[in-house]
Amino acid sequence: MNGAAGRTWAWARVGVLALLWGSTFLWIELALDALTPVQVTLSRCVLGMATLLVACLGSGRRLPRDRAIWGHLVVAAFFCNALPFALFSIGQQTVDSGVAGVLNATTPLWSLLIGLVIGSERGLRPVRLAGLLLGFAGVVLIFAPWQTTGPVGWGALAIVGAAASYAVGFAYMGRNLVGKGIPTISLSTAQLIAATGLTSLALPAGGLTSIEIGPKTAIAVVVLGVVATGITFHLTYRIIAAEGATNAATVGYLLPVVSVALGAIVLDEGFDLRIAAGMVVVLVGVALTRQHKPARSSSARPSWTDSALTTDLLTPGRARPR
């Protein structure tokens, strides 16, 4: 495949991943028509786990056997799967799917903030600090606390909490799972197995209520679990392996655009200029936090709190190229 065709195919894959991943919030919204947040979260974990397990076994890979690795996987599954999945389902009971996608884009901001708090981010340049402040200013603009109506409240806070949870989980994975020589498909499958077990513990909190599921909800649940969780994770691994983390990171900028567009077109969700402006401010802030100094020595250890971590650490075991 020549260079031009290769680049076209690479961008096509990024676009497909952005569409599938960005549609997650739409499928959650549809699934919540008949299921409780706990039921949505568990069904998502179960179907995603089954999808990756088939892929793992079909490729001849085996699950990790080391007990220490499984211990780390349980922690990663809590912060990267079980908790944020549940928080998104809870939050979207009162928050539109498009706004949920925009708030999810704050994950890199939380990653950088965590790095500052724990001291792993040193010598923060003014441009990145400005990006951090600008990004959170965009969140405030979306929340619009000066108004009596709008996406303010526990729902929006739950979604922001989910984004922060992703950042915590990615940081933990960077320290304890990356670079251990374990195939990524094995780690990702095991992580969703652990997430399924953790979510099952929450069944008494609304997960045991009777349901009447129609065709629309059934389709939404299957697509959410198989496509938006299982297949999307797999595509992320493939893109990072083939084109590196830079192209994969591009997906993060497209997610809110996809979620907002689908919410407006499919669900007829309102989208005013304030939310649009907030989305732009958030994405500009995230872009500024990704501004780094000139290339470092190739022997330097990759920073696991880098703001690109959102996509990089979806591939445990692969160090992010510099």
3D structure, described in words:
The protein has 322 residues and is mostly helical. The chain is built from 13 helices and no strands. The chain has helices at 3-22, 24-31, 37-58, 67-91, 97-104, 107-118, 126-143, 154-176, 184-200, 215-243, 245-266, 273-289, 309-312. The longest helix has 29 residues, at 215-243. It is globular and about 45 Å long. The model is unreliable at 244-248 and 295-322 (pLDDT under 50).
Bulk shape = globular
Which stretches are low in confidence, meaning pLDDT under 50 for 5 or more residues running?
A: 244-248, 295-322
Structural class: mainly alpha
Strand content: under 5%
| Spatial gap, N to C terminus | 25 Å
- Fraction of residues in H or I helices: 55-70%
Q: How many whole angstroms does the radius of gyration measure? A: 19 Å
The beta-strand count equals: 0
Number of H- or I-type helical stretches:
13
Order of helices and strands: HHHHHHHHHHHHH
Mean pLDDT: 79
Secondary structure elements and pairings:
Blueprint: H1 3-22, H2 24-31, H3 37-58, H4 67-91, H5 97-104, H6 107-118, H7 126-143, H8 154-176, H9 184-200, H10 215-243, H11 245-266, H12 273-289, H13 309-312
